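User: Please predict the structure of the protein below. I'd like the answer in structure-token form so I can feed it into my own downstream comparison script.

Assistant: Understood. Taking the following sequence of 360 residues as input:
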Amino acid sequence: MKIRDRYITKTLLSYTIIVLVVWTSIYSFFNFLAELNSVEKDGYTILSALTYIILQLPEVVYKQASPIILLGCILGMGHLATTGQLLIFRVSGASILKVTLLTLKNSLIFVLFFICIGEFLAPISSNLAKSSKSNAMGSSSISFNQDGFWIRDGDNFINVKKNIDGTLFSGITVIEVNSSDKIERVIKSETAIFDGNTLDMSGSEIFSIDESSSFEGISLKERNSYDKTVSFDQDLIDSLEKEPEDLSTWTLVKQIRFLSDNKLRSGIFEVELYKRLIQPITLVAMILLAMLFIFGSTRDVTLGRKIFFGVALGLSFEMLSRVASAMALSLDFSPLLSSILPSIVVMFISIILLLQKSFS
């Protein structure tokens, strides 16, 4: 790598780190103010609140990756333009296209770094944050997860009144439906242990419905133990209590596959998955759009205002992309097409304009 390229990379890295620190500090400050409402309740102290905020930082960084990288690149390139260094680079042989490609390369490296944080570190730290807050307030993880759920598994409908910790269920009912969509068997149990593949229900009551005669007959059998094999796993159970944006990408894929196999709507999870998958494309489109302001003429409008307009336009584009995804969900339109189409259009237009500036 040439000295010039290393210098541009160092500048972009420095400004991205500055934006990262400032951005996360602002978020953490407001999150800390929100946590102050819980301080001195049930033994929850300021130290506990600070611990909770710190453990939430990886998740905040991951969710705010796009605006952080965008602002870092724009401010870094803006600094080079304001101090005249960008003009010197262009005179020395660095074309607009080459500088733009170098900026995009560094941006994608930052994206990969933030993705690793979001997929591996953020889920662990977020769970630790919730556990530490729960323990600090004098409650255990058992009382933290007491919500029940309904879930469809093939021809079975399963209801759990209380999900104790993801492996122990209380008040479970399994309704088995035949090919004619009629109830064939109902199994009820006070408790069940889930090992990720099988429900081990103790003290089960099995109600079987017989339709072979002229009238329906219901028979009852009692068993000390009844095993029911299911197709979902522990990750899916854990995901029932989380929003789609809080799930890892792999969990989203498994959730979509499970819902599709059971002919259930998975649109909200597809929107979140596609939004993550095209995040690099969206970021490239926004940076290309912003570079038009960096390399634009400064005779009529100051560079500072152009940087401001570039940032505002980039963030507005990301907001509009999210609105398009929400509209696709409500109108039953393709989530993938609605997510990627705005980025492709903006990217194509920006590349054409940058090529014109580069060769003019």
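That's the full token string. The chain has two domains: 3-138+278-359, 146-232.
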